[in-house]
Design brief:
CATH topology: Beta Polymerase, domain 2
Number of domains: 1
Shape: globular
CATH superfamily: Beta Polymerase, domain 2
Radius of gyration: 16 Å
Number of strands: 6
CATH architecture: 2-Layer Sandwich
Helix content: 25-40%
Strand order of the largest sheet: 3-4-5-2-1-6
């Protein structure tokens, strides 16, 4: 059985879809945005974008804005998950997968550690203000 491969974009050029997503994240003031090139690590997507929102409402608004701007540009999302709860929203745009989550959820699941062999992609949005530190409760041992 022959494996079909799709043509890959050059690593130094961002796709138009990635530009739309990062612009939407920037417009909605997403924080701590990280763009990872996961080509060669997985076949499900070329780019993984991870961002944080300051509250569950902010997370939902960011994800909704990404979906809306992508639809306006002609890119239909394959799936949306987590928009009801707002702690972690995922938008699957085929070549780009967007994760928007609360800082504590991002820290707990550590997607950056999971994809640590991926190359970070420089982006204008990636230089946005870092997420606020999350206070942790001290637990007695």
């Amino acid at each position: 059985m022959a494996t079909r491969t799709r043509p890959r974009r050059s690593p130094e050029r961002a796709s138009p879809l990635q530009d739309i997503v990062t612009a939407a994240l920037d417009d909605m003031k997403a924080v701590n945005v990280k763009v990872l090139d996961v080509r060669g690590l997985t076949d499900i997507a070329d780019t993984l974008i991870i961002a944080c929102g300051n509250s569950d409402r902010h997370v939902r608004s960011i994800a909704d804005s990404v979906v809306e701007k992508c639809k306006k540009a002609g890119f239909r999302p394959l799936g949306k998950e987590g928009l009801r709860d707002g702690e972690w929203a995922l938008v699957d745009l085929q070549d780009v997968v967007v994760h928007v989550m609360l800082p504590r959820v991002r820290e707990f699941y550590g997607l950056e550690r999971l994809w640590e062999t991926a190359e970070p992609v420089p982006a204008v949005v990636a230089q946005a203000a870092p997420a606020r530190a999350v206070r942790r409760r001290r637990t007695s041992s």
